[in-house]
Amino acid sequence: MTHVWNGSYGRGGKLNKEFCAASVTSPGVWSSHQCSRKVAVQEEGHGWCRQHAPSAQKKRDEAREAKYQAEQRENNARWAKQAAFANVAQIAIDHFDQKASFDDLEAAVAKYRELKEKHRNEV
Ligand SMILES: [Zn+2]
After folding, report:
1. How far lies 1's CA from each of 12, 31, 72, 76, in Å?
2. Cα of 1 to ligand 1 centre, how many Å?
3. Which one, out of 10, 49, 102, 109, has a CA that is 20 to 30 A from the CA of 30?
């Protein structure tokens, strides 16, 4: 989200309309100041440089969000696969101890294979 510069400490300083309206901070500087780049785009009632234009900011936010969602899907798929694999091992042990049937083991293996195949196709 791009903030419009409104003066040092938010006291309502005068916005220089020749320059980008974004409020920015510099490394090591505590207070914010108006962006020093020339106006390139007019949007939402203010002039902006190409970096701080709300539409450009939105595009970057959306790209970041899409990347995050893709990573989440990948992690979830990997976790589901690992959990299914652990389940196969547990049911194999239970089967060995005669606490689970061969059908249970077969179902667990089928579930694991299904997730493994699905994961392979998604990545
Ligand atoms: Zn700017």
Report:
1. 19, 18, 23, 29
2. 12
3. 49
